[in-house]
Amino acid sequence: MVKELCHRCSKPVYPTDKVGPLKDSTYFHQGCFKCYICGTRLALKTYCNNRNDTDDREIYCNGHVPVAGPHDLPPTRNGHPCGSGTSNGGFRRDAGLEDMKIAHAIKATQVSKPYPKIKHEGARYVVDYDAQTRLELIHRRDEDKLYEAFDENKKREYDQFERETKEEWERALADFARKYQKGQVGNKNKEELIRHLTIKRDKKLETLHMQRKERERLQTAELVDRQAKEMLELFKQARVDCSSGDSNGGGPPSYPTTPPPPQPPMCSKRDVYTNTSVFETIDQVAISVAQSEVTTFTELIRTLTASARSDVEKARAIYRWITVKNLNVMQFDSDLDSNTPMGLLRGIKYGTESYHVLFKRLCSYAGLHCVVIKGFSKSAGYQPGFRFDDNRFRNTWNAVCLDGSWRFVQCNWGARHLVNAKEGSRSTPKGDSLRYEYDDHYFMTDPEEFIYEFFPQESEWQLLPRPITLRQFESLPFVRSLFFRYGLSFTDPLLQAVVQADKSGAATVSINMCNEALDSLIFHYNLKFYDGDDSELNGYSLKRFVMQSVVGDAAVFRVHCPSTRSLLLDIFANAVSPGHYLTGQPIKFKSVCKFKIVCEQLNVIMVPLPECASGEWGPAKAYRLFGLIPLTHEDAIINSDRFLEIKFRMVKPLVEFVASLHKNRTDDRTLQRCCQASIRGDVVSIRIEFNEEGQYGLDIYTRESSSRSAIGGKQLLTHCCKYLINARM
C-alpha cells in the first residue's frame, strides 16, 4: 500500500497524524500543518493558499499569504499567464511594451521568501516522530481499555451496593414492622430508623468511592510507569544508534540511557540559574502552548521543547505548561473524546492522574528519567508541633534527572499558594482556600531546602549526604517557599519548630537577612493561641506581647508569654521599595515561617507593650526606608529620666514630623503635650518631657516633600519609627 507523503517534509503520513487531502490534493502531518513563513500552527478553517501562483501548494496564515498587488501579473498555470495575452477566442496577442516593462519590473524586484522552508519538527529529536506517535497510539489504546474497565467496575460495584443496601433496608423495615405491630415502636422511631439507614448508606457509599478512586489511581500510576519505561526504551535505542553513528565523539555528554542511583546533586540550583529570565523564551512558549490545542502528547512535547537547548530547559517547559494549566480547576465534558486536546488530560477528569503522574508521563515523551516519590509533607492544615502518625499529610512529588543529577520538582505546589492568615480565615470555603500562582521555588529545589517541607518514605530520596529521621523532620522549623526566595536563614541553626520559653515566659526567634534583602524586606507577625483562634487575653491583643526589631542583619521576634497556654507565632514578610512604602499604600504580607511557643512554667506576670503602630521597634526601618540616620539612640529600647531628646539626620527631603506617645491605661490625648518634633537644617529632634514614671511607646510619622498621598486635600503621614522607653524620674 502506497502511503501519502507530507508536502512539507516528504515523509509518509499516517492516519493518526494526517491532515488532508486539501484542495490541491496535498497532505500534511499535524506537526507540519503550519504557516510556511512564520510557522504558526494552522487548522482547516484557518489556513490559506497562494492565489497568485497556483503552482505554490504551500499553506500560509492569514497574515503571510501572498496578496496580489496593483501591478502584479495574473496567476499562472503551466508557466503561462491566465487571462493575459490571450483573446476570448483563444488567440494569443503580442505583448505590448507596457506589459514587458511591468513584467521586467516585477521580476527585478522579486526576492526569495524570507524564511527557509520549515523542516518537520521530528528531525530535531533523537526519536523519530512517527515511531513515537505509533507508540503513543498503542499507549492510548491501553488507556482506553483501562478506563473502560474503570467504568465497568464502577457500574458493577454500584449495582452491587444498591442491591445490598436494598436488602439491608428491607430487613430493617421488616423488623421494624414486626415491632410496630407489637406496639414496641412508633412513627417517631421509624423516622429515626430511616435517618440512621440513610447516614449509614451515605458513609458506606463514600468509603466505596474513596477505595475505588485509590485503586484506580494505583492502576493508572502502574500503567503510566510501564508506558514511561517503554517510551524511554525507545529513546535509549535511538541514543545508542546515534552514538554508534557519531564518529567525532567531541560533542556534549549524552543523556544517560539508564537512570543513575539517587545521590545528592553535583551542584546547587543557584549554580544552574539565579534568575528566571534565562527561561523567558521557554516560559513564553509554554504559556502560549497551554492556550492552544494539541491532539497528541508527542506533538505537545515537541512543540514545548522545540527551542530547548538542554535537559533543564525541557523539564522547565513541561513544568511551566503544567503550572499554567491549573489542572485541579479544569472542567471536562462527560462525553470527553480521547482524541481531543482535553482528552489528553482525561486522567484528571477521572481523578486517576494528578500533577506528579502527568509530569512523569510528559518527561518520558521528552526522553527524561523521572520518578514519583511518596512521603509526608507539611501541607495545608499542618501546624508546627504536629506528628506524622496517620495518613493526613501524605503527599507525592517528582525527581527528574537533569545534567546527570536528580532534581526535585513539585508541580502541584508550584501551581498554587495556600491562603495564609493575612489573606483568609477558617470561615473561607474549601474551594476558595487555594489561590493559583506560579512558584519557581518548586522547580529544581535544592535538597537542603526541600527537606523542610517534604519527607520521602525512602531515605535515599532525601538526596542529602546525611539523611534525617521522621522525628527530626517534625522538629524542623515550619517554613514556606518565600523564606528561601528572600534568602533568609535562622540565626540559631538548631532552632526547632517548637520553641520553649523560659520561666519568665521569654522566647526568641531570630532570622538572618541576606545583603540583597536588608534594604527592602519588611516583616510582620501574628500571634494567637495554638489550640484555637483566640488572639486576645483579658482584652489585650496578643500581638502586644511580641517585640519585633532589627538587630544588625537579623529580624528578631521576642515573645513574652502572658500565660502557660501554648501560642502560635506566624511570621510574614514582603519586599517593598522605599518609594512604595512612603505612599502609605497597604502592603500585602505573606507567611514565611511558623512556630509553636510553649511555656510550661511562668514565674512572672507579663504586661503588654504600649499600643503603638504595628511593625518593628527601633530606628532600623527609619534608616532603611526613610534615610533617617539615628544620631542619639540606635537601640529599640531607651532608658530615660524625665527629659529625653532623640535626634536624626535626614538624607532625604522630609518636610514634616509628628511624634505620638502611648502608655498603658493612659489616654493618648493627655500625652500629646509631652512631646514635640522640630527640624533644623537636616537634623530632626524629638523632645519629650515625662509626667510620671513608666513604660512608654513612641511613634514617629513623616512624609516627603513630594508626597502625593492626600485625603480631602490633607497630606498623609507614614509611620517611620517607634521606640520603647522606660522612664525613671
UniProtKB/TrEMBL annotation:
Family: Belongs to the transglutaminase-like superfamily.
Region (Disordered): 241-269
GO cellular component term, pick one: cytoplasm
Pfam families from the UniProt entry: Ig-like_KY, LIM
InterPro entries: Ig-like_KY, Papain-like_cys_pep_sf, Transglut-like_Superfamily_Mod, Transglutaminase-like, Znf_LIM
CDD domains attached to this UniProt entry: LIM_Ltd-1 (cd09443)
Keywords: Cytoplasm, LIM domain, Metal-binding, Zinc
Coiled coil (UniProt feature): none
Example GO molecular function: metal ion binding
Domain of life: Eukaryota
Keyword Zinc: yes
Biased composition regions of type Pro residues, renumbered to the chain: 253-265
Organism, scientific name: Ascaris suum
Protein name: Kyphoscoliosis peptidase
Keyword match Nucleotide-binding: no
Cell location: Cytoplasm
Gene3D superfamilies in the cross-refs: Cysteine Rich Protein
Domain LIM zinc-binding: 4-71
